[in-house]
Amino acid sequence: MVAERLTLAGCVFPDVEAEALLLAAGDDHRRQEYFLRRRESGEPMAWITGFTSFCGCSVKVATGVYVPRPHSENLAMRAASVLPQHGRAIDLGTGNGAVALVMQSLRPEAKVMGVECDHVAAECARSNQVTVAEGDLFAPVPRSWWGGVDVITGVLPYVPTRELAYLPHDVLAFEPRRALDGGDDGLGLVGRACQEAPRWLRPGGHLLMEVGGDQANRVHALLQTLGLDLVELLRDEDHDLRGLHAVLGTSS
Ligand SMILES: C[S@@+](CC[C@H](N)C(=O)[O-])C[C@H]1O[C@@H](n2cnc3c(N)ncnc32)[C@H](O)[C@@H]1O
Question: Which residue of 155, 209, 215 sits with most ligand 1 atoms within 8 Å of its CB, as the best mutation to test the pocket?
Answer without folding.
Answer: 155
